[in-house]
Amino acid sequence: MNETDTLWLIPARGGSKGIPGKNIKPFCGRPLVCRAIDGALACAEDNDVVFVSTDSEEIRTAAETCGISIPFLRPPEFSTDSASSYSVIMHALEEFEKRGKSFSKVVLLQPTSPLREIADIKGAVNLWNPEIDMVTSVCEARTNPYYNAFETDADGLLHISKGDGKYTRRQDAPHVWEYNGAVYVISVSSLKKCPMGAFTKILPYPMPSDRSVDLDTPEDWLFAEMIFRRNYDNPERNS
């Protein structure tokens, strides 16, 4: 087994309540899952594996039209609304190990981040090294606990969440990041020790807010297509 290779994993289950059929729905003319596959194929090396974890034959067929093989489907117990990313990743790793294929890292690309660029994927991958647990893409948080995020005390009164409340300009407050869901580069050895929520060595890969749209609702979809057509429907830009 070669444990220096990468598993490029795209999770795409069949069920979706917010946007029905979203993973095969055309986003600016191309199925959403295929856009994620395109990004993985553009970055993968010769011995890597690009794989879509799905419970859906329809998604499997769409994925295989992109030139990749889907040798197994995700079981129902890992395809519910409550199924964790960790269980999906571990299932894929275990199934490939049964087939004699092991990996040093997993690059998780969610289809619901169609505005990420190839440069974002490569940038996050280049930050990874075997000494850390994970690199994850982030964007600046919309609310900052040092500036405009508040908690209530025992009397129900608001007070600043963090710090002394003396920052009068947002740009002076410490930067606060939130995961944007676009790219995760994860050490397999760390995954075998604990779930991602228990990781302690995580590096951020910052992305701007206009590439950090995550598709949860039909309104998100319309907004993301508008951004894509305005800024990203340009082959020279996405290279």
Key terms:
single chain, 239 residues, alpha/beta, two-stranded antiparallel sheet, 20% strand, globular
Structure report:
With 239 residues, the protein is of the alpha/beta class. The chain has six helices and ten strands; from the N terminus they run βββαβααβαββββαβα. It has helices at residues 32-43, 57-64, 85-98, 118-127, 188-191, 218-232; strands at 6-11, 26-27, 30-31, 49-53, 105-108, 134-140, 150-152, 158-160, 177-187, 202-206. The protein has a six-stranded mixed beta sheet, sandwiched between helices. Strands 2-3 form a two-stranded antiparallel sheet. A two-stranded antiparallel sheet has the order 7-8. A hairpin with a 5-residue loop joins β7 (150-152) and β8 (158-160). The longest helix has 15 residues, at 218-232. The chain is globular, with a radius of gyration of 19 Å. The two termini are 32 Å apart. 33% of the residues are buried.
Could you provide a short overview of the structure?
The protein is 26% helix and 20% strand.
Assembly context of the chains:
single chain
Helical proportion? 25-40%
Spatial ordering of strands, largest sheet: 4-1-5-9-6-10
Mean pLDDT, to the nearest integer, reads 92
| Main sheet summary | 6 strands, mixed
The best one-word shape is: globular
- Counted by DSSP, the helix tally is 6
Specify the structural class: alpha/beta
Kindly report how far apart the N and C termini lie: 32 Å
N-to-C series of helices and strands: EEEHEHHEHEEEEHEH
Radius of gyration: 19 Å
Strand content: 15-25%
Tell me the number of strands. 10
Ranges with pLDDT <50 over ≥5 residues? none
